[in-house]
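help with this:

***
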Amino acid sequence: MTRTRKAIIALLACFSLLLPGVGALGVGAAVAEPEAGTDTQCSDDENLLLAAEQPLEWGVRESFRKYIEGPIANGEITAADGATYDGEKFSFPVVDGTYDRAAQTGKIHFGGSTHFTGHHGILDTKISNPVVEITSPTTAKLWAEVVSKGFQGDATDYGLVHFADVTLSTNSYEEPTLTLQSSSVKLTADGVEAFAGFYEEGSELDPVHAAITMIDPEPCPTEVVAEAPTASDVEEAGADTVTIPDVEGVEYLIDDVVVSGTYQVPEGVDAVTVTARAMDGYVLSQDSDSSWNFKFVINEPAEEPSQEPTE
């Protein structure tokens, strides 16, 4: 056995003694990930609330932080991308999210990242963009994007991972604040793998806390379909017209001017474009046309017969 390999094995043994609960990597069953950026900004549901501001506070795990900053790992803990670290916990700023105040369920996305390094970069773990998926009045799932490297091999990007299962002691909304407080945060099998196998499944992590300012969503606009205008092309000069429909929530424009009723086409004009747009509180259906072009034949006035001078 080479000296380098002996040194690595000794270092692993030392690390396993210093971190209680270290075990073999566990691989969890596949689970559905919560999609980011899909939260609605409008709703007619009176129970739905949108996350506006205030962070998620979470320390990951106290013993891990102490080991990283201790004399053996001689490492560093940093926060970036909007997250902050006060020496005991990280604050991840809210990005977006929804909460149903009747069911006491929801999903809140947070931003920012925390980076743990130790043993001159041999140990390297980055946890970013946590998501709290509130599954019942007393339970939640903690998701996070994780890139980690243990004592051997290269860093692995695990993507968005179901990192921990959360038991909530507090899940309450008192306008305008949603308060979440955990009584237990336990590492999942997928979290074990993403955490480079440092802890066993079910290991207790630091508590999570959030007091999030919530707002009511805007009412969703009413969907409307614009009806097509009609045109009349007559032989008489200056008598061409376009008839504009009367549709609730829709206004029609010609040359950027709102028109209604019967539009008299100016004499000498051989083409008119009518456009439709939704008024406030409405939105045009995706199946709705919104522009129509009309062509007109310009009739030249008949020449009057010339009269011969009379003697």
User: Anything to note?
Assistant: Helices lie at 3-18, 62-69, 189-194. The radius of gyration is 33 Å. The chain is about 10% helix and 45% strand.
